[in-house]
Amino acid sequence: MSTALLVGLGVAALVVLLLLAAAVHVLPEYERGVILRLGRIQPLKGPGLIVIVPVVDRLTRVNLRTQTYDIPPQDIITRDNVTVRVNAVTYFNVIDAIRSVLSIDDYRFGTQQIAQTTLRSILGQTALDDLLTKRDEVNQRLQQVIDSVTDPWGVKVTIVEVKDVILPEGMRRAMARQAESERDRRAKVIHALGEKEAATNLGEAAVVLEAHPAALQLRVLSTLLEVGSEQNSTIAFPIPMEFLRTLDPTRATAAGDGRPGAGPTVSAPAPVAPPPTAPPVAPPATAPPATAPPATAPPDVPPASAAA
């Protein structure tokens, strides 16, 4: 056998091995093979051992496992004009391998871009309070919108989660003050309700003790025991309630009242008739003043003649 023939056989064997390597493929359980034969789609292949026609067929492997994509942090203006920095994560998987190859050039890149733009759009229509307190509703809305866009590509978006919402420093301080004011308000409301309930219970206890004087005396003795057990210098002198009732005129009751602890009967004084009034006395008549007669000058007396 000539050397040229041996070389030819070796080359042919090598070509056969290369063709077999290109024709035979093993697909794992989580992959499917999409085959285009001369540009036309063929039935879906896999998993397991598959054989294609080299040069004629073009095989595309499609991963069916759930994939994740971290949406990078983005500055978003909410509906109430607050700038926040938000990042999120998206979980998606291929449910139709043929559509993921024929409908879009790169379903991974397309899903990532749709997730970013939808995040800005949805959060821009959401108020800050809803973004902080209704996170589940926001996540569900993001998932529905993104999934509706990627569904024609054979891609199912299963979960979209907003991870962090970073607020400006001034907004964080304002929210801290608001939370502190809310805690103070709740504390005051709880304290007021406690005071109201305590006052109601004290009123009911007062009614019960007033109806049972013996219980009141037992309460007084119990209080004295508590004061005496504290070993302090305070000396307590109990004052009978009957003594206090005698000092309070509003506690006086009628003689026939059988209530316990009723004070002595106080009779109202008889009304006193006013003294008779004397008839008015007419003022005495005044006499007109007497007029004195005008004084008359004595007659002129002639001077006495000189004695002769």
Automatic annotation (TrEMBL):
<dbReference type="InterPro" id="IPR036013">
    <property type="entry name" value="Band_7/SPFH_dom_sf"/>
</dbReference>
<feature type="domain" description="Band 7">
    <location>
        <begin position="22"/>
        <end position="179"/>
    </location>
</feature>
<feature type="compositionally biased region" description="Pro residues">
    <location>
        <begin position="271"/>
        <end position="302"/>
    </location>
</feature>
<feature type="region of interest" description="Disordered">
    <location>
        <begin position="251"/>
        <end position="308"/>
    </location>
</feature>
<dbReference type="InterPro" id="IPR001107">
    <property type="entry name" value="Band_7"/>
</dbReference>
<dbReference type="Pfam" id="PF01145">
    <property type="entry name" value="Band_7"/>
</dbReference>
<comment type="similarity">
    <text>Belongs to the band 7/mec-2 family.</text>
</comment>
<dbReference type="GO" id="GO:0098552">
    <property type="term" value="C:side of membrane"/>
</dbReference>
<protein>
    <submittedName>
        <fullName>SPFH domain-containing protein</fullName>
    </submittedName>
</protein>
<dbReference type="GO" id="GO:0005886">
    <property type="term" value="C:plasma membrane"/>
</dbReference>
<dbReference type="InterPro" id="IPR001972">
    <property type="entry name" value="Stomatin_HflK_fam"/>
</dbReference>
<dbReference type="InterPro" id="IPR043202">
    <property type="entry name" value="Band-7_stomatin-like"/>
</dbReference>
